[in-house]
Structure formats: structure tokens, C-alpha cells
Write a structure and sequence with these properties.
The complex is a heterotrimer of chains A (482), B (173) and C (122). Chain A has helices at 12-27, 37-58, 73-100, 106-123, 127-145, 152-183, 188-197, 202-220, 229-235, 238-263, 268-290, 296-317, 319-347, 363-366, 368-382, 388-402, 406-432, 446-464, 467-481; strands at residues 62-64, 69-71. By secondary structure, chain A is mainly alpha-helical. Chain A has one domain (8-480). In chain A, strand 1 (62-64) and strand 2 (69-71) form a beta hairpin. In chain A, helix 9 (229-235) crosses helix 12. Chain B has helices at residues 2-23, 27-47, 51-75, 78-83, 91-111, 132-143, 145-166. The longest helix of chain B has 25 residues, at 51-75. Chain B has 173 residues and is an all-alpha fold. Chain B has two domains: 1-84, Four Helix Bundle (Hemerythrin (Met), subunit A), CATH 1.20.120.1200; 130-167. Chain B is globular, with a radius of gyration of 21 Å. Chain B has seven helices and no strands. With 122 residues, chain C is mostly helical. Chain C has two domains: 2-35; 62-116, NADH:ubiquinone/plastoquinone oxidoreductase, chain 3 (Methane Monooxygenase Hydroxylase, Chain G, domain 1, Up-down Bundle). Chain C has helices at 2-7, 10-33, 40-43, 62-86, 88-116. Chain C is flat and about 70 Å long. The chains are: A mainly alpha (482), B mainly alpha (173), C mainly alpha (122). At the B-C interface, helix 1, helix 3, helix 6 and helix 7 of B face helix 1, helix 4 and helix 5 of C.
């Protein structure tokens, strides 16, 4: 018998997060209610440990575990992004959970496990692993969405997400089964080789690729598979909404690119045109419907659909420019959107009071600091120069033009202009309307301040000095396309 | 020959029971016919020499998930739901999608058996392992070591999820 | 060789067919032989004693559901043990460590369930 090589270094970040998640579960029953927030800090320690574990992981470049697991700068970039998302979400959640009276610390464990699932999606070279990661992420997120168990909207959110999510997982799995039938393997590289050499079973392979694409499009909420997103995002607890709008999206695009670049380069012209349509539809639908949303969580939900559309533009563009633009944009969008949700979390009241746009009227005169921070995030989401959002959109449209997708870039720019209306409307409310609310008991606590500091710094840094991260994304893209 | 005969027998039972699952008004009857479908699918697996899969089908689906279904049925008031109007009246959409599906099936049958040629599995069979379960085991515990361990995290998440959502209310809620 | 494996199951299939036939034949035979008398007394749940005053189909508490779903999860866990046990000699120490890690993670879940009181009936 040949024993497979076990290289713990190559999966060290995932091991760290799993260990800390398990530690939180073991400690949970023994910790008194007053000290529950310590377990939140334990989760933060887990994300820090995972960050540190990226260094040994990056020294293990190559394929491991009988070619199921791949370590390259593409997977390391996404590991970094997922850990960052998890850390900011935990920081945002700590006071929220206490305030809402749902301080069950399984929340943190589920969040860490969901992050492990995302890592499995981005780092694997094998469709079965991708499916396992997808399921870990999805099941953890269904539960997180329904975490406010006494709230009907939260229940509705979890239920809808669960039904449509399992439906889409089934689509993905069906695609995996068909591709195994057509090529005899679920390993991405073996699939690509068999498609290149033998006579390609085009009808079966296209069917399989289409089914996988549908499954993943559901997860990243691009049109026409986006209808679940607004209800689910509205009902979920606000920090979870923030997590859902960036985490599964980034992981979904990571897998999508990995599968289609590695396994199906022979079908490239076909999926480029599919993504053309998907991107155009998503940008139009997301941005136009966001215009009329009175609730800020719903508005940000449609905005997140629109942003998935921009990322889809870069996917359609393909090439190393397109791929690096996808990576950069997911990072820029994640940082900005998590920041926006941190502010919304801070301002909201229990049972989702104060999440309507007109509740934000006059915020600037009462809490000028918070208003300025939220304005920064809104400007970055809109894509104003000097912010992360602008740099991200710039690279995406540049990649689109370079790949000859001029019309798609034009649609992108026009819809961006449309989006200015609803992002700036928030700022207008805050600065030019008389206040209805006192905002007296809005407390900026330590963890939230830290979350805001990270997201503000990230938004500005990526906007003003994008080169360092851009170099990283380009090298990751070159790595992944090889 | 035997394989083909068994396929047709089990296939017919599976399809007929599946139709009965969705046409029964009483959900308990539906659950019983579902057991029929699942068992005959296990029979098909067996006819294809996939003994392990057949075993899993019986242990997990019939022995576990079906029992779960019955528990869920007991949670709801069955006799009342029997008389309630069922709101699955989307027959227009159903008709269109079924027509498309039938069209595809007819196309495939018309094209003949060469439409989909299946490739040989790229994973070689383990030397010296007798029987399907041993083959599966060797593959699972050597080649697919990482997914196997990750599956435990998946099961752990499922445990936490089930308990968190169905647990009693705490004082703070 | 493959045909032989399948042929080994023929007695089982025959047995299944017989078990299916048994109730059908018995019921049919009983119907033909038994006297066809009826009446309200025959249909009562108990021919003597107290009549039931509520439906037997009560709604059950959600606790049963938690037990059932946990059963399914640990059922799936057990499924992983079978192919391991068959190959135990071949996998040797490596397989044992592998399985201990797998079970260790799930035992954490089990301990958590107990500590959390999810199986307490009160």
C-alpha cells in the first residue's frame, strides 16, 4: 500500500481555524454568560493564527494530497481574503450578539468553519473537495442566517436560503457527476488533459459545465439567479448579511475561475459569451432595482448583486488582466462592504429597527464621525477616485476593454453612474436632512472600532496605493492561468 | 442478461413508487412509497456491482433519512393537511418544463446510445482488493484522505446547526 | 467474475420476491375464506372497554426531530467505518490515526451535544 504524503503545512490555515472552532465549541458550555465575549476574542485569535499560518503554507507551493490540493499564490490570496473577512465579521458581531440577546458562541465556531469551507473551495484541485467546501460554507451560512430564532424574518431568510441553496448545490453536484461520466475524473487537471487529448464529448461536457455554472451562479447571486438574495440578506442578522454578501461571493468566484480556467479552457469562447450576458443582466438589474429600496439592508443587497455583475465582467474578460481584476475587486469590495455593514450594525436597533434610509436623516449633525465613515464606504461602493472601489472598477473596465468587450465596459460605466444616485442618496440623507433620531445610545465599542479601523484603512490604502496588492493579484492570476 | 433484467425490475418499481410519492394525498403513504423508491435504487446499485453504495443507500436513506421524514410528518398535523388545499398549482410552468424535458429525452433516444459515451474512470482499481467495499475503502482512505477528514467538519457543522436551530429558547431571547 | 458476484445475490432477490408475495397471498386467501359479516361493532377500535376520545395521531414535540437528525448524522459517520474496518489490516497504523482524527472531531460534537443539554428531555 502506498501511504499518501501528508503535508500539514499546506493546509495549516484551515487546520488552525478548525482547531480554534472546535476549541470554542468545547469551551462553550463551561463559560458563564458574562464571559461569553472572551470566546469571541478566542475566534479572533484563531484568525490571527490562521494569518500567521499563511507563511508556512506559502512555502509549500505545489500539489499535495494526491493532487487534490493546490498551493499557489492564487489560493494563498483567497486564503488571506477569507481570513480577513472572517476576522472583520467576528469583530462586527461581538456587540451585536450581546445586544440582540443571541450570544450563543456557536456563532463564532460556525463562522470559522464556514471560512474553512471557503478555503477548501479556493484551494482544491478536485471537484469533490469543492463540493464538500461548498456544503460546509452553505450549511454554516444557513444556520447563521437563521440565528435570530425568535424573529420571523430571520427564519424566512434561513428557510429561503436553505431551499434555494440546496437546490443549487444539487445542480453543481449533477454537473460534477456528468463530468465524471464524460472524462472519468473529478480532478481539474485530469479533466483538462482528457478534454484536450481524446475526442471531447462536447454535448455531455457542455451540459456538465452549464450545470456547474448554474450552481455557482446561484451561490454568487448573479442574474438571473439572484432573486433569493434580497429577502435572505434583509432577514439575516446584520453582521451575517455582511459576511454573506462578501464571503460566499468571493469563494464562489474563486471556484468558478479555478474550474473554468483549469478544466475547461477548451470551452473558453462559449463561457465568455455566457458571462457577457450574465454580467450585463446583473449590472442592469442590480443597479436599477437598488434605486427604489427604502431599507438600507435591501439596498446593499441589490448593490451586492450589482457588484457581482462587475466581477462577472472581469470573468468574461478572462486573461490574466481579467483574473487579476476579479481578485482585486473581490478584495476591495469585501473591505468596503464589510465596513458599510459594520456601520449599519452599529446604528441599527434590536429587531432590525433603524435600517431604513430615512432613519439616517441628519446623522451628520448628531454623529459626525460615523456619518463621515459611512460616506467613505458609500463613495467607495460607488467608485469615486481615491477609494478602493474606484481602483477595482478601473482594473475591471481596463481588462474588459483590453479583451475587446467594449460594449460590456460601456454598460458597466453607465450602470456605475446610475449607482451613484442611490449611494449618494444615503450621504444626502445624512448631511442635508433634519434628524429624526437622537442616536444617543449608539456606542462605538472596541471591537467595532477595530473593525472600522481595518476597513477604513483598507478602503483608503487600496484606493490610493493599489500597486502592491495589484502585483500580488497579477502574480496570482499568472499562477492560476499557467 | 441478469443485470438487464434486474435493472428493468428495479427501475419499474422505482419509477412507479416515485410517481405514487407525489400523487398520494396522505403524506404517510408518500413516505412509504418513498421507501420503495429508495430500496429499488439500492437494488439498481447492487445490480451494477456497487455493493457499498447499495448498503449506504439502505443504511442512510432508508434507515436514517426516511425515519427523519416520518418524524417531521409527526411534527405536523397530518389529518388536517390531508384535507387542505395544496398550493402547488403551477401546472403551466410544470407543463412547459416537463415538455422540454420530454423533448430532450426523445432527442437522446432518437440519437441512440452513442450520444453519451462514458469514459473509463481515471482512478485505477486498487490491486489485490476484492469486492466493491474494499475498493471504495482503499480509495477513500488513501487517495481521498483530505476530503474524508474534511467530511468530519461538515458533519460537525451539521450537528451544530441542527441543535442551534431546534434548541429550546434561552432566557435572553 | 462480475456475473458471479451478481449471481450470488439471486437467493436474496428470490427471498425478497417471496416476502412480497407472502402478505399478498395471505390477505387474498383470508378474504376468500373468511365469513363476510360486518356491522358497527366490528369496526370499533375495541370491542369492549373504553372508546378512545381523541385521535391517535398526535403532534409530536420538536425534541424528537433533534434526536432524529442527530441520528442521521451519526448514521453517516458509521457508514465511513465499514470500508475502514474491511481494510483495517491493509491500512494499518496510518488508517487508525486517520480514523481517530475523524472520530475525534465528531466526538467533540457529541460531547458538545451532551453538555449543551440538547438530548435532555425536560
Amino acid at each position: 500500500m502506498n501511504i499518501p504524503v501528508v503535508n500539514l503545512g499546506a493546509i495549516l490555515p484551515a487546520i488552525m481555524l478548525s482547531l480554534f472552532g472546535i476549541a470554542i465549541m468545547v469551551a462553550e458550555p463551561f463559560v458563564s454568560d458574562a464571559k461569553k465575549s472572551w470566546l469571541g476574542w478566542l475566534a479572533i485569535a484563531g484568525t490571527i493564527a490562521a494569518m500567521l499560518a499563511l507563511a508556512p503554507m506559502s512555502r509549500q507551493a505545489g500539489q499535495w494530497y494526491t493532487n487534490l490540493w493546490i498551493v499557489d499564490s492564487y489560493s494563498i490570496f483567497f486564503h488571506f481574503l477569507f481570513i480577513l473577512i472572517a476576522a472583520i465579521t467576528i469583530l462586527t458581531s461581538m456587540n451585536f450578539l450581546q445586544r440582540e440577546g443571541i450570544h450563543h458562541t456557536e456563532y463564532y465556531a460556525l463562522l470559522l468553519f464556514a471560512t474553512v469551507g471557503m478555503m477548501m473551495m479556493a484551494g482544491s484541485n478536485e471537484l469533490i473537495m469543492v463540493f464538500l467546501g461548498l456544503e460546509i460554507l452553505s450549511i454554516a451560512t444557513y444556520v447563521l442566517a437563521g440565528f435570530r430564532r425568535t424573529d420571523l424574518k430571520s427564519n424566512e431568510s434561513a428557510m429561503k436560503y436553505f431551499l434555494l441553496g440546496s437546490f443549487s448545490s444539487a445542480f453543481f453536484l449533477y454537473g460534477v457527476a456528468l463530468i465524471f461520466g464524460a472524462t472519468g475524473s473529478t480532478n481539474l487537471i485530469v479533466i483538462a488533459d482528457s478534454l484536450r487529448s481524446g475526442d471531447p464529448q462536447t454535448s455531455l461536457v457542455s451540459l456538465a459545465a452549464a450545470l456547474m455554472l448554474i450552481g455557482l451562479c446561484f451561490k454568487v447571486a448573479v442574474a438571473p439567479f439572484h432573486v433569493w438574495a434580497p429577502d435572505v440578506y434583509e432577514g439575516a442578522p446584520t453582521p451575517v448579511t455582511g459576511f454573506m454578501s462578501v464571503g460566499p461571493k468571493a469563494a464562489g468566484f474563486a471556484v468558478l475561475l479555478r474550474i473554468f480556467m483549469t478544466a475547461f479552457p477548451t470551452l473558453e469562447d462559449r463561457w465568455t459569451s455566457v458571462f457577457w450576458i450574465v454580467a450585463a443582466l446583473t449590472m442592469l438589474i442590480g443597479n436599477v432595482i437598488a434605486l427604489v429600496q427604502p431599507n438600507i439592508k435591501r439596498m446593499l443587497a441589490y448593490s451586492s448583486i450589482a457588484h457581482a455583475g462587475y466581477i462577472a465582467v472581469a470573468v468574461a474578460a478572462g486573461s490574466e488582466h481579467g483574473v487579476s481584476a476579479v481578485l482585486f475587486y473581490t478584495l476591495a469590495y469585501s473591505v468596503t462592504n464589510l465596513g458599510a455593514f459594520a456601520v449599519v450594525t452599529m446604528l441599527s436597533r434590536s429587531e432590525d429597527k433603524l435600517v431604513n434610509l430615512n432613519d439616517y436623516a441628519g446623522l451628520a449633525s448628531k454623529r459626525p464621525g460615523l456619518a463621515a465613515v459611512l460616506s467613505l464606504f458609500m463613495l467607495s461602493l460607488a467608485g469615486v477616485p481615491g477609494t478602493a472601489g474606484f481602483a477595482g472598477k478601473f482594473f475591471i473596465f481596463k481588462a474588459a476593454v483590453q479583451s475587446g468587450l467594449i460594449w460590456l465596459a460601456v454598460i458597466g460605466v453607465i450602470t456605475t453612474v446610475v449607482s451613484f444616485y442611490y449611494y449618494l442618496y444615503v450621504i444626502v440623507q445624512m448631511y442635508m436632512r433634519d434628524p429624526n433620531e437622537e442616536f444617543a445610545d449608539v456606542r462605538t465599542t472596541g471591537p467595532l472600532k477595530l473593525a472600522l479601523a481595518i476597513t477604513i484603512a483598507g478602503t483608503l490604502y487600496l484606493g490610493i496605493l493599489p500597486t502592491r496588492f495589484l502585483d500580488w493579484t497579477v502574480s496570482a492570476a499568472v499562477n492560476a492561468l499557467r | 442478461m441478469l443485470e438487464l433484467a434486474l435493472f428493468y425490475i428495479f427501475g419499474t418499481i422505482a419509477v412507479v413508487s416515485a410517481i405514487l410519492v407525489i400523487t398520494q394525498h396522505n403524506v404517510v403513504h408518500s413516505a412509504i412509497f418513498l421507501a420503495g423508491t429508495l430500496l429499488s435504487v439500492a437494488g439498481i446499485f447492487l445490480a451494477l456491482n456497487a455493493e457499498f453504495l447499495a448498503g449506504v443507500q439502505v443504511i442512510v436513506y432508508v434507515g436514517g433519512i426516511l425515519v427523519l421524514f416520518v418524524f417531521v410528518i409527526m411534527l405536523i398535523a397530518v389529518e388536517r393537511s390531508t384535507f387542505e388545499r395544496q398550493f402547488n398549482r403551477q401546472w403551466k410552468i410544470a407543463l412547459i418544463t416537463s415538455a422540454i424535458l420530454i423533448g430532450e429525452l426523445v432527442y437522446v433516444v432518437y440519437q441512440g446510445r452513442d450520444t453519451f459515451v462514458l469514459a473509463e474512470p481515471a482512478v485505477p482499481l486498487v490491486q489485490g482488493a476484492a469486492g466493491n467495499s474494499q475498493q471504495v475503502g482503499m480509495g477513500l482512505y488513501t487517495t481521498y484522505l483530505l476530503p474524508f477528514e474534511i467530511a468530519s467538519i461538515l458533519l460537525l457543522v451539521a450537528i451544530v446547526g441542527a441543535v442551534v436551530l431546534a434548541k429550546k429558547k434561552t432566557q435572553t431571547e | 467474475m462480475e456475473q458471479n458476484v451478481l449471481a450470488g445475490y439471486i437467493p436474496i432477490f428470490l427471498f425478497m420476491g417471496l416476502t412480497l408475495l407472502f402478505p399478498i397471498v395471505t390477505l387474498l386467501a383470508a378474504r376468500l375464506i373468511r365469513p363476510q359479516t360486518g356491522g358497527a361493532g366490528k369496526l370499533a377500535p375495541y370491542e369492549c372497554g373504553v372508546d378512545p376520545d381523541s385521535d391517535a395521531r398526535q403532534r409530536y414535540a420538536i425534541r424528537y426531530y433533534v434526536v432524529a437528525i442527530l441520528f442521521v448524522i451519526f448514521d453517516v459517520e458509521t457508514v465511513f467505518l465499514f470500508p475502514w474496518a474491511i481494510n483495517f489490516n491493509r491500512l494499518a497504523l496510518f488508517g487508525l490515526i486517520e480514523m481517530l482524527v475523524f472520530l475525534g472531531i465528531l466526538i467533540v460534537g457529541y460531547v458538545w451535544i451532551i453538555k449543551k443539554g440538547a438530548l435532555d428531555w425536560a
